[in-house]
Amino acid sequence: MKRPNPNFEPTLIERALAHVAPKTAQIMLHNRLKFEATVAMGRGFGGYIGARRDRAATADWNPGGGSPAVDISPDLPMLRDRSRDQMRNAPVALGALNTDVLHVVGTGLSYTPAINAKRLGITEERAQEWMDDTKFRFNIWASSPDSDYLRKLDFYSNIELTYRSSRESGDIFVLTPMVERYGELSLALQLVEADRVCNPRGQQQSDTLQDGVELEADTGIPIAVHVAKNHPGDWRGVNEWTRVELRGSTGRRNVLHHFDCLRPGQVRGVPWIAPIIEPLKQLNKWSDAELNAAVVSSIYVMFMEMDAEAFQDLYDDESAKTIVNNAQKWSGKMESGKAINLLPGEKANIQTPGRPNPEFDPFWNAMVRQIGMALGMPHEVLTMHFQSSYTAARGALLMAWRGFTQRREKMAKTICQPVLELWLANEVAVGRIACPGFFADRAIRAAWCASIWTGDGPGSVDPLKEVTAAEKRVAMEISTLQAESILHDGQDWDAKHRQRTKEVAMQKRDGTAPAAAPGSVPVAADSSVDPNADPNAPTDKPVDPGSDQEDAAAAELRRGLSR
After folding, report:
1. CA pair distance 94, 96, nearest whole angstrom
2. pLDDT, tens only, 416-461
3. Coil, helix or strand for 261?
């Protein structure tokens, strides 16, 4: 039953006026309803020219004003199908997707613990030990196919597939079941493609069910998803649905939903290329037509025309009939180097196609620029073609990298960090990792779960200039070695420092340390240093500020950076 529209009911003033002046009350109600209908349907009576309906440029422009569900839900199946078709068959769409996935995810997002020792009431040494052990254990789980429900991909490959699928289909769901692995329960990730979350048995959309997502009646908060056992486009006819709550009774996240929310109240995501599907398709058609025309123009065919009188003199009636029948079977297809006999009276009309079209490349690039604007990807990055100056190329890369970084951060927040928290909660529950107060206080739990997710760096156009700029930023104290290390290649500086310290100690031990640069302070040999000692062990001899020892250490560090 439809709910009554409160706007059609008389207001308190109109009901009171109806007792003394019923005609006036009726006129007031009629005018109010007319005004509300005009505002809701007509629009264009304000001061903005873009909303006017009496101008030629906007007279036929009547977009719908529906809710997110009304505007998105009816088109989602077709948008997904066409988006995947473009990703399969259109070079521009596929190239944009591959470039985006390569820079956002790349070789994978790496977990680095970043707990606050002071907040947790532990020493820095204990915090470092905990972070090293936890990172080691997480990498073991993440690098194994056991982290995948189907045991096909590891965690890092699942992250890449999650991001790629969400761009193609609009969104993706990641289930987080606990499955038995080697005799004990372990976290596994189960990726569910967007199409499989749908209304069971074709149920109609309602206030509590929208595109497979179950909503709370009063607040509209998503509380569960309905997952089809088989893909709706699968050949199997009979299907079943499983209801999976987004959160368990303890608040555990059973489902992770990754999509770009473009409007408040939006429940499902739309494919990345949805706004530009039509121009992408048209551009692909035009490219195919130009390619076919160029191929046809490259074919060399010889047409031989026979005189009518000579034809009658050379062939009798039976032979002539055979030749005519064979000529009629020709499909019109031309092959390079082929000679085609024309019947008497026929003449080949050769048209020069003028291919390759000199206007193809400028127009194609103009269209791709617009597509790149819609995708937030500069033309040079989208086409992987850099012909401009260093400044322009670097500007394009920096502009693209802002978008890549923003999407990487979102991926880390919506998928990577929740997965880490689920994995760590299980490790703490079974006693493999000690986290005092983990389940007692949410603030303490968040402190134990604090982390940094890093990916591949942006690369460099001119390495020498960028290293010099990084050195100056650190010297000016407007940046840190950690920040510059992550910006360079996405790796943690602390790990590099520990490794470099070991390498320098080994070079000194083996006598392969490089010679000091001209003008630098020589490093004095210290006989008290054991070459076999642990280079990470703390020294009993502090370095005095301003001493020769400090200068020598600085010179050694500079030589290490220069290599």
Report:
1. 5
2. 999 999 999 999 999 999 999 999 999 999 999 999 898 887 777 6
3. coil
Q: What are the backbone dihedrals phi and psi of residue 175, each rounded to the nearest 5 degrees, phi first?
A: -85, 150
Provide the 10 A C-beta neighbour count for residue 437.
Answer: 13
Please give the Cα distance from 315 to 192 (Å, whole number).
72
Host H or E run for residue 189: none
Query: What is the reported pTM?
Result: 0.74
Could you tell me which of 74, 71, 53, 75 has the C-alpha nearest to residue 62? 53
- CA 387 – CA 365 distance, rounded (Å): 13
Residues 6+ apart with CB under 8 A from 497: 481
E-strand spans in 21-130?
110-113
The HSE-up count of residue 482 (CA atoms within 13 Å, CB side) is 6
CA distance 349 to 347: 6
Are 445 and 286 spatial neighbours (Cβ–Cβ below 8 Å)?
A: no
CA distance linking residue 457 with residue 377, whole number of Å:
17
Q: Please enumerate, as own/partner, the contacts of 294-301 that have beta carbons within 8 Å and a separation of 24 or more.
A: 294/355, 294/356, 296/334, 296/353, 296/355, 297/352, 297/353, 297/354, 297/355, 298/336, 299/334, 299/335, 299/336, 300/336, 300/337, 301/334, 301/335, 301/336, 301/337, 301/338, 301/339, 301/340
Two tokens, residue 7: 């706007």
DSSP letter string, 402-432: HHHHHHHHHHIIIIIHHHHHHHHHHHHHTTS
**Angle made by CA atoms 361, 366, 368, in degrees to the nearest 5:** 95
244 forms beta bridges with 225
Task: Let me know: does 120 contact 127? Beta carbons within 8 Å.
Answer: yes
Q: Which two tokens stand for residue 201?
A: 């048995």
Beta-carbon contacts of 171 under 8 Å, excluding residues fewer than 6 positions away, are: 194, 257, 258, 259, 268, 269
pLDDT in tens, 288-301: 988 888 887 776 55
